[in-house]
């Protein structure tokens, strides 16, 4: 079968035309004929061994954590793979599948789930979003950030502020429901000053962070109190595009009513993961079918994969490999 394979010696994953098909190895597994797989930062970091959830490869391994396709009875599903998904066939866990709604394009169905997990889980389970909240999306110009904006509005956010480095992409966010954008290209003092003014007039309830690094430091500095009672802010880190570490003053944690947490693989409970698959994803996929959740994808055939690995994809768009 055709597959994209990471070999133990490293380098870039390779397109292979005659890779062995996977076989069902236990009860509760199913064979899926794959149609589309999104190529995400998570897939890249797991493939090259830099993500914290990566197993050390001792043999060739098909990449791709999840994707869409159809079962032997023709049912179209999104599924999380037991074997790698970026291949014509994959083994999946029946308990980690979502039946796709009629009318959804395979590429859209492949692109959305990771972004929904990276936004809905943070907003609902870590930040406990409530109608009327003021939400700051830090690093909002990416594909997941754009979904977070739309979900925050869907859940009743009163005000949404978005930060990012790409000025054109920031302006586009205004069409998705953002009330104000802040460029991270400005001097640090300008960013802090504007965020402080926003926080003073409309206290920030939730921060969903996709950058970590210096932008997160600036936001946390903004929240620092002066010994008075402070507004409770829930800060949820989801990504680290600006760096994996920060300097955090103890005074910030002591001077503000701050709940600092993360959202990602390993942080969710089994119950939360079950709700993601049985309730949240089906609801969000249906919203996409109805045009209420805007999704921008770019597709590439599996035999053109070498172009995909280093492709400079437009900000806010997800690259999907079509099998």
Descriptive keywords:
323 residues; elongated; alpha/beta; Quinone Oxidoreductase, Chain A, domain 1; 6-stranded mixed beta sheet; 2 domains; 6-stranded parallel beta sheet
Description:
The protein has 323 residues and is of the alpha/beta class. It has two domains: 3-100 and 293-322, Quinone Oxidoreductase, Chain A, domain 1 (Alpha-Beta Complex); 115-262, Medium-chain alcohol dehydrogenases, catalytic domain (Quinone Oxidoreductase, Chain A, domain 1, Alpha-Beta Complex). The chain contains nine helices and 15 strands. The strands form three sheets. Strands 3, 5, 6, 7, 14 and 15 form a six-stranded mixed beta sheet that branches. Strands 10-9-8-11-12-13 form a six-stranded parallel beta sheet, sandwiched between helices. It has a three-stranded antiparallel beta sheet with strand order 2-1-4, with no helix packed on it. The radius of gyration is 20 Å and the shape is elongated.
